[in-house]
Description:
There is one protein chain. The chain is α/β, with parallel strands linked by helices. It has 2 domains: 2-138 and 256-294, 3-Layer(aba) Sandwich (Rossmann fold), CATH 3.40.50; 140-253, Rossmann fold, CATH 3.40.50. It has helices at residues 15-29, 39-44, 53-58, 80-90, 102-114, 139-159, 176-185, 199-213, 227-238, 248-252, 258-276, 308-316; strands spanning 2-7, 32-36, 48-50, 95-100, 119-123, 163-169, 189-191, 215-221, 241-246, 281-287, 290-294. The protein has a 7-stranded mixed sheet, sandwiched between helices. It has a 4-stranded parallel sheet with strand order 7-8-6-9, with helices on both faces. The longest helix has 21 residues, at 139-159. The termini are far apart. The mean pLDDT is 96. Bound molecules: 6-O-phosphono-beta-D-fructofuranose. 6-O-phosphono-beta-D-fructofuranose is lined by residues 10, 101, 125-127, 170-172, 222, 252.
Amino acid sequence: MKTAIVVSGGDAPGINAAIDGFLRLADHGGDHVLGARGGLAGLLNDQLLALDRSVISLLAGSGGSILQSSRDPALQQPDARERLLAVLTRHEIDNLLLFGGDGTIRHAAPLLANWGISCIVLPATIDNDVACTDYTLGHDSACNFALGAVQGIRATAHALPGRIFLLETLGAPTGHLALAIAYASGAHLALLPEYPLELDWLADRLKAIVANDGYALVVLSEAYPDINHLVAEIPQRAGIRIRHTALGHAQRGADVSHRDRCIARDMSRIAWRAFKEGAANGVVVLRNGALALHRERLPIDSKPPPDRALYEFVNQR
Ligand code: F6P
């Protein structure tokens, strides 16, 4: 069996661990593996390389992806199918192991299936916003990175009280990541794009929190509407200084947590076994606590918004 591994869209912590897991199984099973440099666009351009297992093992705990990715919608090109089939035939590739998020699963995976190309997708994005799976690889590591930042912010907030701290997370366009971090950190408020709040209400609420607790910790999703306006307006309306920390891409490149390392290896094991058993297409999903290969096409609608009850619990207690 010969597999090409491709990383598409935003990288996520755990991709290297999953590649390492797949390579180990392939080595033991006498299988061959190549990696595409530059995502699906790279694959289309015949950018295939041999993977050095010793290097990949060393990087298994690091964020990012040893195989460079791309957001180029290369499969939309008119001659994409023919070019792709030619590359796969030239290298005698039987199947693709594809890492990607919402866009890859909704747009690239169905095309590959239509073209008769065997492909299993491992959902990987810190955003945890893929429909039909409760978990995407990298989410836990990104949450842990943010929790480390909360620890530091709380230390200084306690030492010099009387301020509002906004911790901005990635996760656009959804608030799943921010809500997970707000809940786990015991933040005073979560600000999510799906549930915008009225500015005067927010200012009053923050004022009350600072009066009571000495500081306010707010976890804010990067997609919350008009963050600059909020940062300028709240101090005016509440009469309290704001300190804003944006985690940015440092969060996406976070070190890989224990949970993500285990899930990465479990996902790659499921994919390898499925290939060996002749499965043509599917996505490895987590549902009700169990990882499994979902063979049917995933619904093309977006994941539902973040849990409203949890959001209200975080914001109103
Ligand atoms: O989808 C993953 C993600 O990291 C989002 O959280 C973020 O908004 C986006 O990618 C950033 O994309 P880029 O790296 O292209 O700026």
